[in-house]
Every structure is written in structure tokens, then in C-alpha cells.
Specification:
Length: 386
């Protein structure tokens, strides 16, 4: 559904709110499935941290995806929205005891473990509960990615994962612990990656590490998990509403040397939901100063923190105006100077009451919203509501 034609429908709802185009989400899920069906042993786990809206989760689950969770709360949300426990993987650098207990009780597929201390705690808890925990080790591959420094995860300096030099020792340790079962390796190099050569570099590193394991006689690596990381087009969301999944999955098919019977897991988040979500807001005032013209809207960094946190770009549209374009700073009402959505933004001439759409906000939008300034969390609507 073309968002530019929805101004009258959006007018009926109190702003700000999130709008999810479930038709576009369905097209995106179908495109992913079409590509992965071409390759034997490819498994999809949706990265729940991108968007945990219940209706979005339900649609993704119904499309046959598993889930990648990074907290006990995300596991709970997935179970409540229909994801089978044995299709849930649990990652995260700091898992609390109660989260580990919840995951073991539910019977999740496996843990992505990030340190020996975490491994030992999982073994202790599993022993106390009379369980055996399947574990996959997140290895830091020391592979860079062409993306924002705050969302790289695969460099040696990052907090995530186990150093590749310690991989064999950690696997040997797990094999000596009675309540653990080693089932695979996990890698992730970052987010919002658009260059396929970054993923190629990851493939080559995994190939090297698998060769090292085989030289040590470790051949029981059932699962290789390469995370997600595929980016979306924030500049031109209507030109590229569905990411290039063909290039993404073909990169792994051509460059990653899987061993016979190995399963390859992906944990896509942003690429699944990023383009289907928009933050809908309303112009409160147009403010002219000596040097700037501001469009002050009723959404702020409490609803969408990415521009303040990452200096992230989002395409912004005035759905109420076809007047000639002017230059504005688009800002929110929060009592912080960083509450800015865009500087020197080219918008159709804007006036009080105009409906503004901040695009490509389906990932890390609603899920990162806060109540700062005692604001209410934003409501969310889907195509069927509007």
C-alpha cells in the first residue's frame, strides 16, 4: 500500500504512532523463503530485537521462521506469539540466571555462548535442573564491516564473542562438562551491511576456522550460524522496499564451505522488518529563527532514537503537502538538543497539523522506544487497522 495516499486514514489516529505495512512484510518474507528454499540446510531465525511488535512476530512465525532472542523477555514474547521453543536460539553477552533457567525449562534449540564463565554457569544450572543444554559458541572472527562503529560486532575490540584463538580450548572445555552438548559455531560481524564482500570475508574466516578444527579432530560441528547484518536502503525506501536477498544468500552459497550435513543458520532482523514500518507524526509548529527553519513534530527521540544514537538517516515525507520544497530541521519535543530527526531536510512546505512520515522505521524503532519525559509509549497499527 502506497503510504503517500494514506494521509486521510492516518488523520483518524492520535499521533505519534507506528504503522506496519503487513503486505510489504509478507512480500519480504516470501522473498526470503524463495531464496533460502534454493539451498539445502538453510534455516532462518528472526532477530527479535529489531521489532517485537506482537502482530509482526505472529506474521513472521506463521511464515515458518524461528527466532533469535537476546533476553528472557524476548523468549517469553516469542513463546506467547506462537514460536516453538525448539526453533528459538538464545544469544547475548550477559545472560542472567533466571533467563538461562527459563530457556532450559522451555526447551529452546540452543544457547549461543560468549565466554567460559557463561559456559560454566549454564552447566551448573543445567545440572541443578536435570537438563542437558545444547550450546553453540559465538566466535569473534576479527572481521570488520563497512558500517557504523556502534553496530560493528566482529572485531577483536568488540565485547561480543570468544576470541578465535581460544575457540579450540573452549570447545574442549564444553566436551568435559557433563550437562552440555556442543552443537555448533556462531558468528556475527555487524548490522546495516550493504557490501557483499564483508560477508565474503566472514565466509573465508569461517572456512579457515573449520579447517583448524578438523586438524584438531573436532568434526562434530552440526550448525554454522552466520548471524544477520544485511542492511536496507534508508535513502530510497520506495525504490528498494525489499532488500537484495538473492545476492546475500548467494554470497554464502558460493564462498562458505559447509561440511556434509551441516546446517546454516541466519539471524536476519532489520532486513525483514525495516522497510515495512513508518513512524507517523504531526507537525506541531513551524519555527523560524535567524539561521534556521524548524519543523517541530510530536514524535521525538523517545519514539525513534536512531538519529540521536547513531546519527542515522531516515527518509522523511510530508504526506499533507504538495507545495514547493523548503529546507527544515525536523525536530521533536524532547528536552534534549539531540532530539533531531534530520538537519537541512528537504520537505514540501510544511504547516501546523501536517502529517509527517518517518520512513524505514520498522527496525529498532518501536522496540527501542522509551518513556523519557514521562511520555507514553507509542501505539502501533498495521495495514488491517487503517
Amino acid at each position: 500500500m502506497d503510504i503517500t495516499n494514506m494521509k486521510d486514514r492516518f488523520e483518524q489516529f492520535r499521533t505519534p504512532f507506528y504503522y506496519y505495512d503487513t503486505q510489504l512484510l509478507a512480500e519480504t518474507l516470501a522473498a526470503i523463503k524463495s531464496e533460502t528454499d534454493k539451498h539445502e540446510g538453510y534455516h532462518l531465525h528472526y532477530a527479535v530485537k529489531a521489532c517485537a511488535n506482537p502482530r509482526v512476530l505472529q506474521q513472521i512465525q506463521q511464515a515458518g521462521f524461528g527466532a533469535d532472542c537476546v533476553s528472557g523477555g524476548e523468549i517469553k514474547a516469542c513463546l506467547e506469539n506462537g514460536f516453538p521453543a525448539n526453533e528459538i536460539v538464545f544469544a547475548g553477552v550477559g545472560k542472567a540466571d533466571w533467563e538461562i533457567e527459563m530457556a532450559l525449562e522451555a526447551g529452546i534449540q540452543y544457547f549461543n555462548v560468549e565466554s567460559i564463565p557463561e559456559l560454566e554457569v549454564i552447566d551448573e544450572i543445567a545440572q541443578r535442573m536435570g537438563k542437558v543444554a545444547d550450546v553453540s559458541f559465538r566466535i569473534n572472527p576479527d572481521v570488520g564491516a563497512h558500517t557504523h562503529a556502534h553496530i560493528t560486532t566482529g572485531l577483536a575490540e568488540n565485547k561480543f564473542g570468544i576470541a578465535k584463538e581460544d575457540m579450540i580450548q573452549v570447545i574442549r572445555t564444553s566436551q568435559q562438562l557433563p550437562n552440555l552438548r556442543f552443537v555448533g559455531l556462531h558468528f556475527h560481524i555487524g548490522s546495516q551491511i550493504l557490501r557483499m564482500d564483508d560477508f565474503e570475508a566472514l565466509c573465508y574466516r569461517i572456512n579457515e576456522l573449520q579447517d583448524q578444527l578438523e586438524a584438531e579432530g573436532i568434526t562434530d560441528v552440526q550448525n554454522i550460524n552466520v548471524g544477520g547484518g544485511l542492511g536496507i536502503d534508508y535513502m530510497n525506501p520506495d525504490k528498494h522496499p525489499v532488500p537484495d536477498f538473492y545476492a546475500y544468500f548467494e554470497t554464502y552459497a558460493h564462498h562458505l564451505k559447509l561440511r556434509p550435513g551441516q546446517r546454516l543458520h541466519f539471524e536476519l532482523g532489520r532486513a525483514v522488518v525495516g522497510q515495512c514500518g513508518s513512524l507517523i507524526t504531526r507537525c506541531l509548529f513551524v519555527k523560524q529563527t535567524a539561521t534556521k527553519q524548524f519543523v517541530i513534530v510530536d514524535a521525538g527521540m523517545t519514539e525513534l532514537i536512531r538519529p540521536a544514537l547513531y546519527n542515522a538517516h531516515h527518509h522523511i515525507q510530508n504526506l499533507s503537502s504538495t507545495a514547493p520544497v523548503q529546507t527544515y530541521d525536523v525536530v521533536g519535543p524532547i528536552c534534549e538538543s539531540s532530539d533531531v530527526f534530520a538537519k537541512d531536510c528537504r520537505l514540501a512546505e510544511t504547516k501546523r497539523g501536517d502529517i509527517i512520515a518517518i520512513r524505514s522505521a520498522g527496525a529498532y524503532g518501536e522496540t527501542m522506544a522509551s518513556c523519557y519525559n514521562c511520555r507514553e509509549l507509542p501505539k502501533a497499527y498495521t495495514t488491517g487497522d487503517i
